[in-house]
């Protein structure tokens, strides 16, 4: 196999970095502050994953995702999840139509899941049956309805938002569905400076519509390059030990973690961390992964994959604290 010329690799790296900077700058115009959350959402998109954003109402979860959609020349659908939403409202349904010969035939009417970028707004307000309708689409990139399998157009990305579980009228996402999200982002209230900027920008004359800066081909090429980024064997070992340290049955886990966690992260958590780290390396102009990438991204990659025990729920210890402790155990 002929190796790729160095000049071609350098050109691809430069193009990736330039595209990422354009997309980040465009998104910053529509979503003020929360630079870390914005970056993590971009990394999730480039790593070919799905994101779960949690935050109280009014913090801009929907605004963030709609801003991303406006910056991309992709098909976009928003699904407002409610307790009466049915799986067919997401996947699609069959419609009986009269044919040209006077007979009747069924025609499949695709649901909103058949889009490049899907916003599942307040996903934890729908029942578990409806939530699970997205599982196959998120994991396999396809939808099976009425006995037929339909492939979703690439790129495909689901960004779900949810309110904190303690709020009324919410249904906690099951562990199997949480594990399908590459990362979980936590949107916190803005600081004083960001809040002033938000108030000023949203209470004056509306700005003109933003333009799309990247298309589907750009995203697919960037995703392909992310997969090619090398990672050192010692860093892979560090990720493996981190995942093991979240398992209370593993000798690597700490005595403090064992009674608080019922199940640790699955191998999918390690895969998510590696892919996010590769994307971050390229966004920062590096064709290699560093330990700093892994340390900064272990929280969003693993915080939603820990299943706490009853004692862990009652203790009030946040999953982030347990992931940090597992990182210290795994990286030594």
SSE layout:
Layout: H1 6-30, H2 35-46, E1 51-54, H3 61-71, E2 72-73, E3 76-80, H4 87-91, E4 92-98, E5 104-110, E6 117-121, H5 128-131, H6 135-140, E7 142-145, E8 148-151, E9 157-162, H7 175-178, E10 183-186, H8 192-202, E11 214-215, H9 216-228, H10 233-245, E12 261-263, H11 267-283, H12 291-302, E13 307-308, H13 310-315, H14 319-330
Parallel strand pairs: 1-9, 1-10, 2-11, 3-6, 6-9
Antiparallel strand pairs: 4-5, 7-8, 12-13
Helix pairs in contact: 1-2, 1-3, 1-9, 2-11, 10-11, 10-14, 11-12, 12-14
Quick rundown:
The chain has 14 helices and 13 strands. It has helices at residues 6-30, 35-46, 61-71, 87-91, 128-131, 135-140, 175-178, 192-202, 216-228, 233-245, 267-283, 291-302, 310-315, 319-330; strands at residues 51-54, 72-73, 76-80, 92-98, 104-110, 117-121, 142-145, 148-151, 157-162, 183-186, 214-215, 261-263, 307-308.
What is the gyration radius calculated from CA atoms? 21 Å
Average pLDDT metric: 86
SSE order, as H and E?
HHEHEEHEEEHHEEEHEHEHHEHHEHH
Number of domains: 2
Main β sheet profile: 5 strands, parallel
Instruction: Report the CATH superfamily of the largest domain.
Output: P-loop containing nucleotide triphosphate hydrolases
What is the CATH C-level name of the largest domain?
Answer: Alpha Beta
**Count of helical stretches:** 14
General form:
globular
- Named at the architecture level, the CATH assignment of the largest domain is 3-Layer(aba) Sandwich
**CATH topology heading of the largest domain:** Rossmann fold
- Assembly level: single chain
Class by alpha and beta content: alpha/beta
Unreliable runs: none
């Amino acid at each position: 196999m002929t190796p790729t010329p160095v000049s071609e690799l350098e050109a691809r790296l430069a193009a990736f970095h330039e595209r990422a900077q354009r997309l980040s700058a465009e998104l910053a115009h529509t979503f003020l502050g929360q630079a870390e959350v914005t970056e993590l959402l971009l990394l999730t998109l480039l790593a070919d994953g799905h994101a779960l954003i949690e935050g109280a109402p009014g913090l801009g979860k929907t605004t963030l995702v709609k801003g991303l959609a406006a910056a991309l020349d992709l098909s976009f659908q928003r699904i407002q999840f409610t307790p009466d939403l049915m799986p067919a409202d997401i996947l699609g349904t069959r419609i009986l139509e009269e044919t040209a010969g006077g007979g009747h035939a069924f025609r499949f009417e695709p649901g909103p899941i058949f889009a490049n970028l899907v916003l599942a707004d307040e996903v934890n307000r729908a029942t578990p049956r409806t939530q699970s309708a997205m599982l196959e689409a998120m994991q396999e990139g396809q939808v099976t309805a009425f006995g037929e399998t339909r492939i979703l157009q690439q790129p495909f990305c689901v960004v779900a938002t949810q309110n904190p579980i303690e709020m009324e009228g919410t249904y906690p996402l099951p562990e199997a569905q949480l594990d399908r999200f590459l990362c979980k982002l936590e949107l916190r209230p803005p600081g004083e400076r960001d809040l002033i900027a938000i108030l000023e920008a949203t209470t004056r004359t509306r700005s003109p519509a933003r333009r799309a800066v990247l298309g589907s081909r750009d995203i697919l090429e960037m995703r392909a390059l992310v997969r090619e980024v090398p990672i050192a064997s010692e860093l892979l070992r560090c990720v493996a030990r981190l995942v093991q340290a979240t398992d209370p049955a593993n000798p690597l886990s700490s005595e403090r973690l064992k009674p608080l966690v019922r199940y640790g992260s699955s191998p999918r958590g390690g895969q998510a961390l590696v892919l996010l780290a590769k994307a971050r390396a390229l966004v920062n102009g590096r064709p290699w992964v560093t330990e700093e990438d892994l340390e900064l991204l272990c929280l969003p990659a693993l915080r939603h994959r820990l299943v706490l025990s009853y004692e862990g729920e009652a203790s009030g210890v946040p999953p982030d604290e347990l992931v940090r402790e597992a990182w210290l155990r795994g990286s030594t």
